[in-house]
Amino acid sequence: MSHEPESPRTPEVPEPDAEAGTRAQPDPMRPDERWLRETMRGILTSNWLVTLLAIVAALVLSGLLIAIADEDVRDASTYFFARPLDTLAAAWDSVAAAYTSLFRGAVFDFQAPTLARAIRPITETLVAATPLIFAALGLGMGFRSGLFNIGAQGQVLMGAAAATYVGITWSLPVVVHVVLAVIAAMVVGGLWAGIAGFLKARTGASEVIVTIMLNWIAIWLVTYLLTTTILRQGGSRPISPAVGENARLPLLFGDAFRLHWGFLLALAAAALVWWLMERSTIGFKFRAVGANMDAARTAGINVNLIFVFVMVSAGILAGLGGASQILGTDKTLQAGSAGSIGFDAITVALLGRSRPLGTVLAALLFGALRAGSPLMQTVSNTPIDIVLVIQAVIVLFIAAPPLVRSMFFLPSPDGSRRVKEVAA
């Protein structure tokens, strides 16, 4: 029997009502997006051993740079062939002094005169890690959902501006004031990120380009607002007044330490994100879209709506990061208040493989690098730029798992295992 007269099968074509509100769905697998998606999958599905070895390799390579930059090492290297042990000893002393100073400035200062001074470094690490946890959690949700959100910097800054406005213009009771300031940061951060999600859903615009552009818009918008009465409110410098006492996040251990309740909120956010991504229906849809967008659409998931939800959720978390930075740490807003939080959060999310626990640990590592670098510079005369080198090298190794495996002679994972990890 012949089946030639049968009509052609078209299971690949989406149902007309499956993506209501869109007239033309752009190809979700353009060559550039396909490469980016496969690269991200390779990063997110690498195991913890590869991540740990990437950090070790970065520290070793940075140690070599520290030794090369040290004047005593360079002097000893002039007669290396006559007395090679002098060069090796000088290099060891230089690297050991640098990393010891980093430990003292980030974890525990065993040379401090008092116990409070000795444990202060670890609290500074937690302070620096708090906004990174918030922002990286949001980015990680996007990465696992197939969206490459590069706009955390602008979202953090907009959230910080909203929290500052509520903190300096309203006069409310203590609990109400800080809660409303935090909510304002969440709302504004979510709406700002939602712009990219909406454009992605309606027009297929690349979220990478849109979020990068939104970063610049946010930076210059906040810079402008700081020259007006909206945020400056007196004075000639582009800086806001300090937020009211009632709008500040309470300190955890009194005035001797800067650690505030924002850190506990960050841990709670990590737990919430874990539940959302691993145990909730919407989280399953997020992961389904990230694993295979076409299959998710065929299964009846409104992919465009997921784009918006993911971006809004990421913006809410980034806005919380901005609120914690202003209401808990800085107390005032400047154009540079966000620092490099949004960009460092990208590395933190990748290093933590976009999982909440890994993200928290990676943020603690970056917080330690940030908190310990000043003492490393003053005590061991190590250039503070070495910290940036460590971060950059970590990014390099994290982005290239095969390179790390080849360096440490690790076997490549089999294809079936990779498929299972992506599906999970």
Automatic annotation (TrEMBL):
<feature type="transmembrane region" description="Helical">
    <location>
        <begin position="388"/>
        <end position="410"/>
    </location>
</feature>
<dbReference type="GO" id="GO:0005886">
    <property type="term" value="C:plasma membrane"/>
</dbReference>
<keyword id="KW-1003">Cell membrane</keyword>
<keyword id="KW-0812">Transmembrane</keyword>
<feature type="transmembrane region" description="Helical">
    <location>
        <begin position="174"/>
        <end position="196"/>
    </location>
</feature>
<feature type="transmembrane region" description="Helical">
    <location>
        <begin position="259"/>
        <end position="277"/>
    </location>
</feature>
<keyword id="KW-1133">Transmembrane helix</keyword>
<keyword id="KW-0472">Membrane</keyword>
<feature type="region of interest" description="Disordered">
    <location>
        <begin position="1"/>
        <end position="31"/>
    </location>
</feature>
<feature type="transmembrane region" description="Helical">
    <location>
        <begin position="125"/>
        <end position="143"/>
    </location>
</feature>
<feature type="transmembrane region" description="Helical">
    <location>
        <begin position="150"/>
        <end position="168"/>
    </location>
</feature>
<feature type="transmembrane region" description="Helical">
    <location>
        <begin position="208"/>
        <end position="231"/>
    </location>
</feature>
<feature type="transmembrane region" description="Helical">
    <location>
        <begin position="47"/>
        <end position="69"/>
    </location>
</feature>
<dbReference type="InterPro" id="IPR001851">
    <property type="entry name" value="ABC_transp_permease"/>
</dbReference>
<feature type="transmembrane region" description="Helical">
    <location>
        <begin position="303"/>
        <end position="327"/>
    </location>
</feature>
<dbReference type="GO" id="GO:0022857">
    <property type="term" value="F:transmembrane transporter activity"/>
</dbReference>
<protein>
    <submittedName>
        <fullName>Ribose transport system permease protein RbsC</fullName>
    </submittedName>
</protein>
<dbReference type="Pfam" id="PF02653">
    <property type="entry name" value="BPD_transp_2"/>
</dbReference>
